[in-house]
Amino acid sequence: MDTYYRAGFWRRLGANILDGLIIGIPLTILAFIISGERENSFTNIISFLYSLLIPVLWNGYTIGKKICGIQIRRLDGRPPGIGTMLLRNVVGGLVYAVTIGIAAVVSAFMVGMREDKRAIHDFIAGTVVVHDGDE
Known about the structure:
This protein is mostly helical. 63% of the residues lie in helices and 9% in strands. A three-stranded antiparallel sheet has the order 1-3-2. Helix 1 (9-35) crosses helix 2 (41-57) and helix 2 (41-57) packs across helix 4. It is globular, with a radius of gyration of 15 Å.
């Protein structure tokens, strides 16, 4: 297996922002055209499926992660499967929701300050976000 380095806060934030722009803007426009609303259940389902399935189908990448040169991997180095992504997104999301976002803030600090750069959802799913060392 190639050598990977842990992706830090700024790379991960950049990838999330890019995913939000690349997926969110077209979905918002589409939802407005279809229903006259900026957001509806259709856009929420598509966004959820994107974040759940694209990393499974695309070796741990989303579009934003690919652009930023980072990917989700399991701790054993393999790409995430559907179970891993369900734990990461659904269970992790529930933790963030139940704590009214406090756990999300804690996760941001964990990624920025911990040597292993893992967030709460990474611990739940047994994942890490890595890059190949290219800057």
